[in-house]
Amino acid sequence: MNNLALAIKDQGKCKEAEKLHHQCLEARKTLLGEAHPSTLKSTNNLAIVLQKQGRFIKAMKLQRQRQCLVAK
Q1: Residues near 15 by beta carbon (within 8 Å), at least 6 away in sequence
Q2: Which ranges of 1-72 would DSSP assign to H, the alpha helix?
Q3: pLDDT in tens, 26-39
Q4: How far, rounded to the nearest angstrom, does the alpha carbon of residue 28 sit from its chain's CA centroid?
């Protein structure tokens, strides 16, 4: 699902990509936990899509959450 979301983002369909990245992130949190590298990658990918849409504050919050988990 993550790769599909990346491909859709590359096509300029950021709103659709955002939805898929969010679904992927939630699934990975549930299955792998918040601090798992794959979950952190999904968090980053979602933040990138949000930033691309001009939603900088929400993207920045996600990146900060990610950084806190990486630091643990």
Answers
A1: 53
A2: 2-10, 14-32, 37-52, 56-71
A3: 999 999 999 999 99
A4: 11
